[in-house]
Amino acid sequence: MSTGAVIAIIAAAVVLAVIVVIAGRAASAKRRAVRRDNADELRQQARSRSIQAESARASADEQAAQAKRAQAEAEERAAQARGGHAVAEQRAAEAEQMTEDARTRHDRAREVDPDISDAPQDEAVAIDRER
């Protein structure tokens, strides 16, 4: 082979090697670009999921707070009802005591008054006439 042919083959091999290196770098750059795009898409999905999770967490916190407020209000109403019931029982007991006192005084008045019969029926009729 002639020197020119050897130089041509070496030059062709160098050019081919340069083309292979350039093509390899281009392919590598393209793969990196695709991976960057995939990473960006995954980051965007992660941000979206984070926002959804935060929204769900805020909603759950709000519902929990509402439930606590409702429970506190219910407990307050129950306490008020118990207090009202206790007052009602006390007043009923006081009314019963007053009724008993009134009966005792009527009985005593009947015993003391010489003009009234000792019969309770006669007193009941007299009380009804007064009303």
Tell me briefly what this model is.
The chain has 131 residues and is an all-alpha fold. The chain contains two helices and no strands.
Can you walk through the features of this model?
The protein is mainly α. The chain has one domain. It is 92% helix and 0% strand. It contains two helices and no strands. It has helices spanning 3-112, 120-130. It is rod-shaped, with a radius of gyration of 52 Å. The model has no long low-confidence stretch (mean pLDDT 89).
Helix content class: over 70%
First-residue to last-residue Cα separation: 149 Å
Low-pLDDT sequence parts: none
What is the mean predicted local confidence, pLDDT?
89
What percent strand?
A: under 5%
Instruction: Please compute the radius of gyration using only Cα atoms.
Output: 52 Å
SSE topology string:
HH
Number of alpha- plus pi-helical segments: 2
Characterize the biggest β-sheet: none
Properties at a glance:
131 residues, 2 helices, 92% helix, rod-shaped
Task: Map the helices and strands.
Layout (H helix, E strand, L loop, with lengths): L2 H110 L7 H11 L1
